[in-house]
Amino acid sequence: MEEKTDIQLFNQLYATNKQKYIRFASSYVHEDAVAEDLVMESLMYYWERRSSLGHIENVSMYILTVLKHKCLNHLQRQRTWDNLSENMLTDTQWDIQMRISSLEACNPEQLFSDEVQQLLEKALQSMPEKSRQIFIMSRYEEKSYKEIASAMNLSVKSVEFHMSKVLGVLRKTLKDYLPLLIPVFDFFYNR
Question: Residue 108 pLDDT more than 70?
Answer without folding.
Answer: no
